[in-house]
Automatic annotation (TrEMBL):
Coiled coil: none
Protein family per UniProt: Belongs to the glycosyltransferase 34 family.
Protein's UniProt name: Galactosyl transferase GMA12/MNN10 family protein
InterPro entries, alphabetized: Glyco_trans_34, Nucleotide-diphossugar_trans
Origin superkingdom: Eukaryota
Region entry Disordered, spans: 47-76, 418-439
Originating species: Exophiala sideris
Compositional bias segments (type: Basic and acidic residues): 57-67
Amino acid sequence: MHPLSFRVVLIAVSIILIFVFLRQFATISIDDVYQFSQPVLQENGEYAPAVTSPKSESGKGDSKAVEHASAAASASATTSEDSKCVASSSPTAQPTSADVGIVSMLYGKPNEYYVKAIETHERHAARHGYPSYILRSNVYPLHNGVWNKLAYLLHLLVAELQKPEQERTKWLMWVDADSIVVNPALSLDIFLPPKDFSNVHVLATKDMNGLNAGVFFLRVHHWSIQMIIKAISIPQHLPHFGLGYLEQTALYKTFNDTEFRESVIYEPRIWFNTYEFHHAYEGKHGDFQVHMPGLGKDRWPHMEKWLNITSGPEQAEWELPVEETRYPKETKVYWNTLRYVRAVLNYAEYREKKDSPAKDVKEAVEDLRVTFLYASDAYKKLKEKAEKVHKMFEDHTGNGTEDSNHVLKQLGQCRDDLLGSSESDTNPMKGSCHFELDK
């Protein structure tokens, strides 16, 4: 045979073999490639039987039986209110122009506590006109099913940003399935940043382990897409980086990266990520929800207790109008404190350009800046540090120029306007704290 003819035949055989291989591979589900012990909740609201890796003992059964069982589960879907409540949500079927969209995921081994907990979020969303998006399939199982959180958020961000701006949902609120809405009377607007904090794209909370990614807000913005892409790529691009809490650690690392950290704000965790501990609930009547991380097997009796509360007569004791809760006063003080801190830091930057502040002043300013970036939830301590820096500048007025001392007086007026108002005044100051900085 001519050498050229032989090469043509070899190439043709190779193409055929590749085609056969790809066709065979395409008939294998992702659950046949990766071992997962939990069944998947289908779009009709029913759970399909578990499908495990062929290598596992539980996966030796007839695959056709699994297919038939799955088909039977799909056929058994009902139109009852209960089944409607857990039906998958579609972004295209939801209202537009909402302030917040509720996002979570629910799939795997059937768990009535998780189902009922998610239902409290769906009822709350429906009550306030928020769309709700519940992922019902393990669509991103390459590392661990928990990474679906970031993959789904990325999908929703892209879906929202392709809409006209006036039709987009403004924020997405992620909630883990072990969180339960306790006070559905509350609108989520009370947690969102004022207009003069338009650079804030994440509202998060922290505990003793750092970031808790069980509940957080994410602004619908191209910034959020860039952040999610970077976080979700860490297992591929930094395989040796220690991700002790998986996607939570990846998010925390990404939040702390230079290009993202100034757009992340930590709010007091007790506001919207209130914990149930082994011994007690850390919140009080009127708080938004209860979250149960780190409880292990004790999670189930605690969830049962709270689900009974939210579906029984005790609910009336917890469902309070916003004006009877902690939020009006605390949110006002919080945002005005952050405004004041921002003004102090702006003045410090201005003074750095005008003259050279003393070493101790520079150190205090840097301490304030770091606290503002990483611990804004501790706003009382933040206020103390800002006042300390402010006083240090006042004590060093002799070192400043006439212009800088004039601006310092304006900063004092700014402090009085933001922090000196009556605690009974529940209307947060609108706008930022401006003062005249010459160029």
